[in-house]
Specification:
This protein is an alpha/beta fold. It has a single domain, classed as Alpha/Beta hydrolase fold, catalytic domain (Rossmann fold, 3-Layer(aba) Sandwich). The chain is 41% helix and 14% strand. It has a six-stranded parallel β-sheet, with helices on both faces. Helix 3 links the parallel strand 3 and strand 4. The chain starts with 8 loop residues before the first strand and ends in a 6-residue tail after the last helix. The relative contact order is 0.18.
């Protein structure tokens, strides 16, 4: 979609898979006045959070106008750190089913994730572990397909990165308005995660949507409604 220097661009930063394929329906449901840019992380290059933040910021240099950063799941810490680094351009951050400290026990980092991703990536495994039984087969199939685009060692490294993350300082430094979109039936990121965010940023807003972890994919229209309401409250609607 063509971008104007006076329009806000929504930068969509993906979940664990790191690809934009699962964003297609969410983008299709966007309001007419919204510009979006969905990024794809390198699929065969191991990168920690600081490296991904630099990678994102480098790509945003050529994007005109103000930005809203949307960080889905794995990318929440990326969105916050980027917002702190390019604060003059970012107007808001949308956090979707994400975290600033490990959402689960750090002992999970000891598991053989590389072997696991190499051998067990069919969509039925995703159905049990990531989304819950209410998620559609078509969405699960699409999620499995996106994971299969990424090298197992990259996915494994991302899991280890999640389990050792500490984005609290980035959250403090990202002084723009923050909306946290919580999936009511999330089996990956527990509800208590937002309490940590609220302790650091008492002004962070919460919207809970009836969905499993793949919130943007399962409830795209409802998610856009919540985002539009948030932007209106902060006078960030498109001209």
């Amino acid at each position: 979609m063509a971008q104007s220097e006076s329009r806000i661009t929504f930068v969509l930063l993906p979940g664990l898979h790191g690809t934009s394929g699962l964003m297609a329906e969410f983008i299709r449901c966007r309001p007419e006045a919204v510009d979006t840019l969905a990024l794809d992380y390198p699929t065969h290059q191991v990168m920690d959070y600081p490296a991904l933040v630099r990678w994102v910021c480098d790509r945003l240099r050529s994007v005109p106008g103000p930005l809203v950063l949307l960080g889905e799941s794995f990318s929440g810490p990326v969105a916050l750190a980027a917002a702190a680094l390019i604060a003059d351009r970012v107007r808001a951050v949308i956090l979707v089913a994400t975290f600033v400290i490990p959402p689960r026990t750090r002992l999970l980092r000891l598991l053989p994730w590389t072997l696991g991703f190499a051998l067990t990536r069919p969509f039925f495994a995703l159905k049990v572990r990531l989304t819950g039984t209410s998620t559609s087969v078509s969405l699960l199939t699409a999620a499995a397909r996106e994971l299969q685009k990424v090298a197992p060692r990259v996915l494994s490294h991302r899991i280890h990165t999640i389990l050792t993350v500490d984005a609290a300082e980035s959250l403090r430094r990202a002084t723009v308005p923050i909306l946290y979109l919580q999936a009511a039936r999330d089996r990956v990121v527990p509800a208590r995660t937002f309490l940590t965010i609220r302790m650091i940023r008492p002004d962070a807003e919460l919207k809970t949507i009836s969905s499993s972890h793949l919130l943007l994919q399962a409830r795209p229209s409802e998610t856009w409604t919540a985002i539009s309401d948030f932007l209106s409250r902060h006078s960030l609607t498109q001209p």
